Automatic annotation (TrEMBL):
InterPro entries: NADH-UbQ_OxRdtase_51kDa_CS (IPR001949), NADH-UbQ_OxRdtase_suF (IPR011537), Nuo51_FMN-bd (IPR011538), Nuo51_FMN-bd_sf (IPR037225), Nuop51_4Fe4S-bd (IPR019575), Nuop51_4Fe4S-bd_sf (IPR037207)
A Pfam family reported for this protein in Swiss-Prot or TrEMBL: Complex1_51K
Keyword Glycoprotein attached: no
EC nos: 7.1.1.-
Chain's role: NDH-1 shuttles electrons from NADH, via FMN and iron-sulfur (Fe-S) centers, to quinones in the respiratory chain.
UniProt name for this protein: NADH-quinone oxidoreductase subunit F
Native source organism of the sequence: Limnobaculum zhutongyuii
Reaction it catalyzes: a quinone + NADH + 5 H(+)(in) = a quinol + NAD(+) + 4 H(+)(out)
Amino acid sequence: MSGPTFLGTQRILTEEQHPLTWRLRADQQPVWFDEYRSKSGYVGAEKALKGMAPDDVVSTVKDSGLSGRGGAGFSTGLKWSLMPKDESMNVRYILCNADEMEPGTYKDRLLMEQLPHLLVEGMLIGGFALKAYRGYIFLRGEYIEAADHLRRAIEEAKKAGFLGKNILGSGFDFELFVHTGAGRYICGEETALINSLEGRRANPRSKPPFPATSGAWGKPTCVNNVETLCNVPSIVQHGPEWYRGLSAGKSQDAGTKLMGFSGRVKNPGLWELPFGITARELLEDYAGGMQDGLKLKAWQPGGAGTDFLTDAHLDLPMDFANIAKAGSRLGTALAMAVDDKISMVGLTRNLEEFFARESCGWCTPCRDGLPWSVKILTALEKGEGQPGDVETIEQLCRFLSPGHTFCALAPGAVEPLQSAIKYFREEFEAGIKVKTFNNLNPIAGIQPNLLKQRW
């Protein structure tokens, strides 16, 4: 299994500006314990466990402005503060959502394969802050190399005294486990992940109760993304003011973000960049622009479940607020470029097939609506569409919008579809088959050429 391309190593990576990636090796080999320690590894954990109270850690993360890196962008510190304060509830869990199955997204894989100790340290600090005695890394089953590297890192941390009983003499006990999933996109939804971890079918749960109140095995549980947790050690080590100062321009989002571009660009890859950098800078300065002979037709800001934007949106800052104002979502911030040779009908049909296959089948709109959209799109792609098909798809998008389904899978699935119709409607209408009655005898004085109609 080949790893994702990381072109950031072509530039100078510093601890002051690249808290996630500055430790990466030029040969792309994993950074194991001794090397990680020599590069300020576990310094944040030592500071937290030896000199801070759990609530102080939560406040530090909250003040830093760290937002969730799984796509939603919710405040991490606020999420941590929702865990119950009742000391009698002494069984709690911290879960890492490493079920990275969003098409076009591979940022968490990079961190787990090459910097496994960074995630281990982030989970250790998170467990201490949340007073959770046990953590689980719920890993996509296909990430075999990542699983091996994480398990080795956990064993190294245990031998060094950073996992287990009475860590660093703090009185805090913490165990960490890797749990590989069966390869289901729906496990990216936190309550479906919890069900799968418990050995149940991976269906989302009704909320409330929220996981912070009743999560894994009915106990208070916090679920965070890989990249989110990997930011925590540097925030604790250097402070929230330092972290907020990393973002560029007037971006409301703090820190840096793993961003990338895939598609037919000259240098597809992944970089750690400050929030506020524009999509044009990301595409042209880092990804090298489109391949020769191709023009940018559309792009998705952050994964297959985000609305398409056009070249008119390239000067938008890559942050949650500005991308949302344009009608899309930053998502995972790994953008996909669509060139002018690609059919939007075929592309959206391919995306909807994926989402239809990955639906858990729990609610009717998602279970039946997504396959219906695939059926219509397939007909349009073959030039066999019927009049009204495009309008039917638009109606389906409304039926599958937020608030109409049990979880966010279907609303995310129709985002690229509705935006493709918005910007490229003529491509969809071109797939409608037009039949005419040219060989009929005149009826009631009406000439044959006046009997043309669309089926």
